Amino acid sequence: MRILTLPSIQEFQRHFKLAQPGVILEEDIDVVETDCDLHSRRRRDAEVLTTLAANLSAPCLDLGTSHGHSAFKLATNLQGRGIVHTVNLLPEQHQASSGQLVTHLLTKEQIGAFYRARGVAGINQIYADTCNWQMPAGLRDFGLVFVDAAHDTEAVFKDSLLVCDRVRPGGYLVWHDFNPGLRQKFGWIDAVMRGVELFFARKGIVPEIVHLENSWMGVWRVPSAPVRRAPVIEVVSPRAVRPESSFPTRVAEPPAALRDLRYAFVFPAYSASRVTEEHQLAARLGKLGYNVEALGIPCVGGWWPFPKLDHKWRSHSADLMSRYGELEDMLRGKDVLIAAGGSMLHPEFIRQLSTFNVFLCADDPENSPVLSQPVASAFDFCCVANIACVGDYARWGARHTAWLPLPVPANVVDRTLTEERLQTRTRDVDLVMCCERVYGMSDRAQRLERLHREFPQAVLRGKGWPGGFISDAELLGLYRRARVGWNLHNSTGPVNTRLMMLPALGVMQICDCRDHLGKVFRLGEEVVGFDTMDECVDATRYYLAREDERRRIAIAGWKRVLADYTEEKWWQRLLNHIAPHLPAVASPAWHASRYAGNGTVDRSEFAHDRRLAGHRLN
């Protein structure tokens, strides 16, 4: 979905052609109680609701009454031109399916107390659980619906589907806790925005969501004319199939001339294991006939986020300049630089290099603001592991971008595994998912807890789970015993090591992010996809009860990974992506000019800073 952020309520009015300004009557609107209220957030929210209501003559629906502030804003600006129907569940109505990300459970006396105390007319209070509500047929033709009940992804998805056809053409769907700049800071905001994304994916609509800067509001105006629609995957069973044309073609052998080039694979050397891993990768690529050298940039404790990197660059920090000076020496005679995400290469440094520079990133969108977005435009080519984020790079100014799926790690490929073994061997672990639950990046932990309640036999491992950390050896052993593996993401995807590792070890995968998943595997044939947790639960029950179908999908997924998503295929894809953009790749003159000993950058500054670094660090 496209998000248009407007800087002021005046721009918001101009955008929607709203003649009347809203009236804010709450005296405490500017009180800051927590960091959620910074930057006049409550006033910005109020400006959106009051301005929209001031220009409506229609009923409105408010999902999530709470104390009644939103109903108050709507009713006082409608001024009798429409009824505000506001819905909130009573404590005794709450159940597991009502959602877990609920701000609070209020008593009947507390619900709507704010508007009742002020004697505001034109408000109809309804007590219901929106996730399980059969909306009366007479509630329709709304000029505005405000979605602010439970904040779980599935709850937002359900609420949006419930009300969308009840909004009149030209009316507004408004979501609270919607702020693209805060998705990574507040898990419930990410959960809400995931729900909105799923809603539009299910409806097949490519929307423009208007967001008032510093508010927590997302506004979509229901079109009066037919809306542009995206391709929709019709869900006819747990095995819905996507058309063959949506899949990448088989990987071709790269041009032979690319074997003559010299490649530098630059990576963040934050641990001995990472250094070993990258040097082993370079050695394996060497066995394929390519000259690849792994070059690590030391960063004990982890790679530097861009604000830190930028500060180090602009202050000519000795520790950074010494690293760049050493790297510049190692790049002499190289043709192609391939930088893994987190390599800490400043865009201004990259622009000075004479190599053809390729950026690899598998950390979008969670780390985009501090990792990929600030540097993408400096590279000649960007390879993006998250298929859902490829379009972001063009908006950031990247010249050329392509999807490059993460391969199944070489140490995971089990050459003893055969179709006959997958068909006949018994697996004694029904369900598994291994992931962390310590960083709080989204509501994934809550989603998994729900699954665990439904399927208590499931094995959940990783930092923060009761079973705790799992080693690589334990992980591989567990997957070899598993029948079904869940794959749940923090945000968009699919993009993680589970995506290829599960099928590579014969596990049937049930994965979220279904729309983009269908571009990686054949849905219902090689993988099972879902959008909502209800669908995940249904699919899990279905395949646990149908072993023959489970095995069929597991075997097809295993074959697909070994055919298309191995390390060798990953490398071939990368080379095929960049080949058309390499300058005169087979030209002897080009090679001669690059090996003539000319420096890639002005070395005097690096030499000075390296001497300074030695003085400071010794």
The name of the CATH superfamily of the largest domain reads Vaccinia Virus protein VP39
- Strand line-up of the largest beta sheet: 4-3-2-5-6-8
The percent of residues in helical segments reads 25-40%
Q: Please report which band the strand proportion falls in: under 5%, 5-15%, 15-25%, 25-35%, 35-45% or over 45%.
A: 15-25%
Describe the structure.
With 618 residues, this protein is an alpha/beta fold. It has 3 domains: 220 residues, Vaccinia Virus protein VP39 (Rossmann fold, 3-Layer(aba) Sandwich); 200 residues, Rossmann fold, CATH 3.40.50; 152 residues, Rossmann fold (3-Layer(aba) Sandwich). β18, α16 and β19 form a beta-alpha-beta unit. The longest helix has 18 residues. The radius of gyration is 27 Å and the shape is globular. The C terminus is likely disordered.
List the topology elements:
Elements: E1 2-6, H1 9-16, H2 41-54, E2 60-63, H3 69-78, E3 84-88, H4 113-117, E4 123-127, E5 142-147, H5 153-164, E6 167-176, H6 187-203, E7 208-212, E8 217-221, E9 262-269, H7 272-287, E10 291-298, H8 306-314, H9 318-330, E11 336-340, H10 347-350, E12 356-361, E13 381-384, H11 390-395, E14 401-403, H12 419-424, E15 429-434, H13 444-454, E16 459-461, H14 472-481, E17 482-487, H15 498-504, E18 508-511, H16 514-517, E19 528-529, H17 533-544, H18 547-564, H19 567-578, H20 588-594, H21 603-617
Parallel strand pairs: 1-7, 2-3, 2-5, 3-4, 5-6, 9-10, 9-11, 11-12, 12-13, 13-14, 15-16, 15-17, 17-18, 18-19
Antiparallel strand pairs: 6-8
Helix pairs in contact: 2-3, 5-6, 9-21, 15-18
